[in-house]
Amino acid sequence: MNELKKVYISIGSNLGNRLQNLQNAIFHIHSEIGPVPAISKVYESASWGFDAEDFLNACILVESHLAPDQILEKTLSIEERLGRKRTVDEGYASRTIDIDIIYYGAETVQTDVLTIPHPNLQERKFVLLPLADIAPQFYHPVLGKDTRNLIQQCRDKSRIQKTPHKLYKSRKALFSDLSFMAIEGNIGAGKTTLAHKIAEDFNGKLVLERFADNPFLPKFYEDQGRYAFPLEMSFLADRYQQFTDDTSQFDLFKNFMVSDYDIYKSLIFAQVTLQHDEFELYRKLFNLMYKEVQKPKIYIYLYQSTERLLKNIKKRGRAYEQSIEANYLNKINKGYFDFFKSYPDQNTLIIDVGELDFVARSEDYKTIISKIQDFALDLKF
């Protein structure tokens, strides 16, 4: 294994969702080249050498055991996967992502396809300014000057300004910044399974609904008219107690919280199951409680068709759920969508998982995680 090297890399984008492109590049670099202990601020700059949309630029420090040619191979592969199409005589052009190796420790490399240090870094402030954020005193191994001196001597007069955007070293860091996400969905949508996977993969505190302990639930599916009100009241009491207990205290050894429900589902289900007078009484009590509970930063709703839900319910084999009818599931779906329309500030991400199997297919799971990641980044700005 090669010696661990500090590798400085410049990233830029001026096509598509520029911030997401930069973030996706960092996540790929983190998983394929090495951990990313430092990230610069994000800068916006005019296109350099040609007339096009403005770029977002940043620099990152990567710790890697890979050789320079291996890192180049990885970065070219990452660029291609993120939508960049290189041509033999590409020259200056817009691109979804641009990944350049600036330094490889204090070494110099000269081959037919790779020059390190990057031959033009001292001429480009969109490289030097973010580099100064993470390596102000790093000396150019050929020019013998540190980043601050290179900036002072740089003749580049391009317009460059720091932005408020933030990039994350890993998805774990991004989810940690969210603090609390709730995963919701109709009966059988897979919300508990997804919450388990996210908590396990990204070190989250798992908050699960304790539906199995409710003595009224089996009775409700046998006689909804008789047991609807005691069922909904018992659910509300239990959810309120659990939320105040579980979400008021963060686990010091966990990065964030992820739940397989949000307490607002109590009102959605109650509106479907209760008579008008019962619901009005229920809603008064609910509104008092809802003011006191912690709200998730992101509300993820897993949507599946009623037909698919019924198949899932049958497959998991809970005896008391087998009598659930399609009409009941349709009403629950409608209740959720009415909720989303009524609360536009809820930061709701709706994911259609009808064609996805995030348990059996890792690519489907990665698709969902990417959607959550991109949505979280968009929320920031």
Q: What would you note in describing this structure?
A:
The protein is built from 13 helices and 13 strands. The chain has 381 residues and is of the alpha/beta class. Strands 1, 2, 3, 4, 5 and 8 form a six-stranded antiparallel β-sheet that branches. The model has no long low-confidence stretch (mean pLDDT 90). The protein starts with a strand and ends with a helix. It folds into two domains: 5-162, Alpha-Beta Plaits (2-Layer Sandwich); 171-380, P-loop containing nucleotide triphosphate hydrolases (Rossmann fold). The longest helix has 23 residues, at 224-246. Strand 6 (109-110) and strand 7 (115-116) form a beta hairpin. Helix content is 44%, strand content 17%.
Key descriptive features of the protein:
381 residues; 2 domains; 17% strand; elongated; Alpha-Beta Plaits; 5-stranded parallel β-sheet; Rossmann fold; 6-stranded antiparallel β-sheet; alpha/beta
Structure described in brief:
The protein has 13 helices and 13 strands. The chain is of the alpha/beta class and 381 residues long.
Q: Which helices and strands occur, and which strands form pairs?
A:
Blueprint: E1 5-13, H1 18-32, E2 38-39, E3 43-45, E4 55-64, H2 68-81, E5 98-104, E6 109-110, E7 115-116, H3 125-134, H4 147-153, E8 160-162, H5 171-178, E9 180-185, H6 191-202, E10 204-207, H7 216-222, H8 224-246, E11 256-259, H9 265-273, H10 276-290, E12 298-303, H11 306-316, H12 326-342, E13 348-352, H13 362-380
Parallel strand pairs: 9-11, 9-12, 10-11, 12-13
Antiparallel strand pairs: 1-4, 1-5, 2-4, 3-4, 3-8, 6-7
Helix pairs in contact: 1-2, 3-4, 7-8, 8-9, 8-10, 9-10, 9-12
